[in-house]
Write a structure and sequence with these properties.
mainly alpha; Four Helix Bundle (Hemerythrin (Met), subunit A)
Length: about 130
C-alpha cells in the first residue's frame, strides 16, 4: 500500500487545487451557489466535479491492484497514468467545454487505467 499512498496524496493535491480554482471563480463572479449563469464558472465546477467522480474509484482500484499484484512498477504506472490523465482532462475541460485533445486523452487514459486495474484484480482473485 505504500506506493498507492503516493498517488492518493497527489490526487489530494489535485483536488485542493481544483477546489481553489472553483473558489477563485466564485469570488470573481460573486456567486455563492451554482454558477450564476457564468459558463466559465460552470466549467470550473464541472472540472472539480469530474475529478470527484473519477479519482475515488480509480484510487480504490489502485489500492486493490497493489494488494493483489506484486509488481511495484505496474502500480506506479497505473497510479501515474491516473493522476496524469486527470490533470490532462482538467486542463482540457477548463480551457474549453467542447471536445479537445487533452480532454479526450485524459478520459481514454483514465478509463484504460480503470479497465486494466479491474482485469488485474479479477485475474488475481481466482
Amino acid at each position: 500500500m505504500d506506493i498507492s499512498m503516493i498517488y492518493i496524496a497527489l490526487s489530494g493535491l489535485l483536488m485542493v487545487g481544483l477546489a481553489v480554482d472553483v473558489v477563485r471563480g466564485r469570488l470573481k463572479y460573486q456567486v455563492g451557489l451554482g454558477d450564476g449563469g457564468h459558463e466559465a464558472l460552470g466549467r470550473r465546477i464541472r472540472v472539480h466535479g469530474n475529478a470527484v467522480e473519477y479519482l475515488p474509484i480509480g484510487l480504490l482500484l489502485l489500492l486493490a491492484v497493489e494488494n493483489s499484484v506484486s509488481s511495484g512498477l505496474l502500480v506506479h504506472l497505473l497510479g501515474g497514468l491516473l493522476v496524469f490523465c486527470r490533470l490532462l482532462h482538467a486542463f482540457g475541460l477548463r480551457k474549453s467545454a467542447g471536445t479537445s485533445l487533452p480532454r479526450f486523452i485524459g478520459t481514454a487514459g483514465t478509463w484504460s487505467m480503470m479497465l486494466v486495474s479491474v482485469g488485474l484484480i479479477l485475474a488475481n482473485s481466482f
